[in-house]
Design brief:
The protein is of the alpha/beta class. It has 14 helices and 12 strands. The strands form 2 sheets. It has a 7-stranded mixed β-sheet with strand order 9-8-7-6-10-11-12. The chain has a 5-stranded mixed β-sheet with strand order 1-2-4-3-5. α1 packs parallel to α3 and α12 crosses α13.
């Protein structure tokens, strides 16, 4: 089943549970606009190379389309459609006035020089520029894109349209209209959600172990925050593999090492909590990491990591989906039967788009908030969203994913009915 089909399956399941008007289900099952671009980039060796990019604008009933841009060799239209749809649902889970969009370029950025990456980023943004804008569609970072790429996007847009419109993208560097707290927002929001769950279930973080798959933006901040709160982070991984230490991993040292050496598997000596106990560190595969006997499994890499093939082997008690779509619907059913609570992506990683919304608001007002203001506002939104989802869970006797969908669809239904479904 394709990723977009998975997304529709999740929407349909929740729609049935809550008796959603079938017209609204149908309406939300179709992206409003699909854009595919082909653009040339001059490579360092002097040759020109063509690249393909996408932007899917799923729905703007709640506000401008909003969603990240991914640079990855496996990006395809189906994936971008799924991710754009999740953005509509996600913004509504946390109740922010934005719609859903997503973009991507088929490229392995690790194979590009920094100059090639800049030329590619600028060329892609030029190609989609007539379709974006602070009140139209506002991209942001996603896998293998970062604040520097967002700065090139904003600059390219400003050059083309002649005035400073920093709100055209979010996740920019602080020096160029970024918001304090944006870099860590996805992980921070997820940790607020986990914290509420832990409190609701009477658990103690100091007695809980964590494994983190994916050690990029979302995963590394997630691991740092969880370690600060007393959780014992015993394993982390990236695309090359993982490291595991039952005594706990020194997350900060591992991150510094990963930045220097490129992968966590090169960080055996940095892995121990104390310099003397790194002997207990060992490397593990990503598959092994997923199957560790831990309390919390944080999924912060890519989609389709837990499927019907490995769901039965998962031993974690709680899964925190910082990544989008890491658990398939088939796996969800197996995990539910095993009593594993999956805190879903559309709730857990909504902190990223929430602080992106804050960034857009600050850009438009040209008035910038302190980090404390950002964190306080983020916490309130995430905690309120968790509690609303928890209420839906009890009401519909369903899992957290379905409850997040019913919460989101309920809000969207109100907005769509207020304007009229055929008014767009
Ligand atoms: P990133 O590029 O910063 O990090 C991705 C990490 O995953 C890297 O460490 C990479 O090595 C690792 N990885 C890639 N393939 C892997 C594999 N097969 N196994 C294990 N690790 C692998 O990306 P990110 O921004 O942290 O995004 C990660 C996930 O979080 C994505 O699903 C993204 O859509 C989602 N997300 C990110 C944000 C955000 O604000 N950055 C917001 C919402 C959701």
């Amino acid at each position: 089943m394709s990723l977009f089909e998975n997304t529709l399956k999740q929407i349909n399941k929740a729609a049935k549970t809550m008796n959603l008007n079938p017209e609204i289900t149908d309406y939300l099952s179709h992206p409003q606009r699909i854009i595919q671009v082909a653009f040339p980039v001059r490579m360092d060796n002097g040759n020109m190379k063509m690249f393909t990019g996408f932007r899917v604008q799923h729905n703007n009933h709640a506000g401008p389309y909003k969603g990240g841009i991914r640079f990855h060799p496996q990006v395809d239209m189906d994936e971008v459609k799924a991710l754009a749809t999740w953005m509509t649902i996600k913004c509504s889970v946390v109740g922010i006035p934005l719609g859903g969009g997503k973009g991507g370029v088929i490229v392995d950025p690790k194979e590009l020089s920094i100059n090639e990456l800049e030329r590619l980023s600028r060329a892609y943004f030029r190609a989609i520029s007539e379709f974006v804008g602070p009140h139209i569609d506002v991209p942001a970072p996603d896998v293998y894109t970062n604040p520097q790429v967002m700065a090139w996007f904003a600059d390219e847009y400003t050059k083309k349209y002649g005035n400073r419109k920093l709100g055209v993208v979010t996740g920019k560097p602080l020096e160029y209209g970024g918001s304090k707290g944006r870099a860590s927002a996805t992980a921070q929001g997820g940790v607020y959600v986990l914290d509420e769950y832990v409190k609701e279930h009477g658990l103690n973080p100091k007695e809980m172990t964590v494994a983190v798959q994916g050690f990029g933006n979302a995963g590394s901040f997630g691991a740092i925050f969880l370690a600060e709160m007393g959780y014992k982070v015993v394993a982390v991984s990236d695309s090359k593999g993982g490291i595991y230490n039952t005594d706990g991993i020194n997350v900060e040292d591992t991150l510094t090492c990963k930045h220097e050496k490129g992968s966590v598997i090169e960080c055996m000596k940095e892995c121990g909590m104390h310099k003397e106990n790194y002997e207990n560190c060992k490397t593990i595969t990503n598959e092994e990491l997923l199957e560790l006997d831990v309390d919390v499994l944080v999924l912060s890499a890519l989609e389709n990591q837990v499927t019907e093939k490995n769901a039965d082997k998962i031993k974690a008690k709680i899964i925190l989906e910082l990544a989008n779509g890491p658990v398939t619907p088939e796996a969800d059913e197996i995990l539910e039967a095993k009593g594993i609570d999956v805190l879903p992506d559309i709730l857990v990683n909504a902190g990223g788009v929430t602080v992106s919304y804050f960034e857009l608001v600050q850009n438009e007002a040209n008035y910038y908030w302190t980090e404390e203001e950002v964190k306080d506002r983020l916490k309130k939104i995430m905690v309120d969203a968790y509690r609303a989802v928890s209420t839906h869970k009890k009401k519909h006797s369903c899992d957290y994913r379905e409850a997040s969908y019913t919460n989101s669809l309920h809000r969207l239904e109100g907005m769509i009915n207020a304007k009229g479904i055929t008014s767009n």
